């Protein structure tokens, strides 16, 4: 008997993550994005931005857009694919926010989020100026202007 192998659809791939909510990674207007598979109420913990904790000096040496500086000494390098939150896109009109608690980086909702809605947060001015400004912001708000 021949078994038919199902092709793995990369966009439906299950990602390991530490969220209490069901989330998926799918194509969005700005590449891949993270979407809610269920409603999420305002002010809920969604995900931790996980990665390797490295000294800022090492972060400066490495470079890259997945570096998240947490204080004057430490940075989290979230380039690892296990870090689901690296797929969360920037928006100028976000429904999530990101904050540091000690050495943890926490992403939580600041609005009620519907099923199927993309999770987005504001990456901040420094990132925006370095990586987004030149090619133009592709968030919902900027595209509708
Ligand atoms: Zn924008």
Explain the overall architecture.
A hairpin with a 2-residue loop joins strand 1 and strand 2. The longest helix has 8 residues. This protein has 145 residues and is α+β, with helices and mostly antiparallel strands. The chain has a four-stranded mixed beta sheet, with no helix packed on it. The termini are far apart. Helices cover 13% and strands 31% of the residues. The chain contains three helices and ten strands, in the order ββββαββββββαα. It has a single domain, classed as SET domain (Beta-clip-like). Bound molecules: zinc ion (ZN). The site of zinc ion has 6 residues, from helix 3.
Mean pLDDT: 89
User: How many β-strand runs?
Assistant: 10
What are the segments in which pLDDT stays under 50 over at least 5 consecutive residues?
A: 8-12
CATH architecture: Beta Complex
Number of domains: 1
Question: How many separate helices?
Answer: 3
Succession of helices and strands: EEEEHEEEEEEHH
Instruction: State the CATH class.
Output: Mainly Beta
Largest pleated sheet? 4 strands, mixed
| Rg, Å, rounded | 16 Å
List keywords for this structure.
10 strands; alpha+beta; four-stranded mixed sheet; binds zinc ion; single chain; 145 residues; 13% helix; three-stranded antiparallel sheet
Q: What is this structure's SSE topology?
A:
Elements: E1 23-28, E2 31-36, E3 45-48, E4 52-55, H1 56-62, E5 67-69, E6 74-77, E7 89-90, E8 96-101, E9 104-109, E10 118-121, H2 125-132, H3 140-143
Parallel strand pairs: 7-10
Antiparallel strand pairs: 1-2, 2-10, 3-9, 4-6, 5-6, 8-9
Bound molecules: zinc ion.
Zinc ion (ZN) is lined by residues 91-92, 137, 139, 141-142.
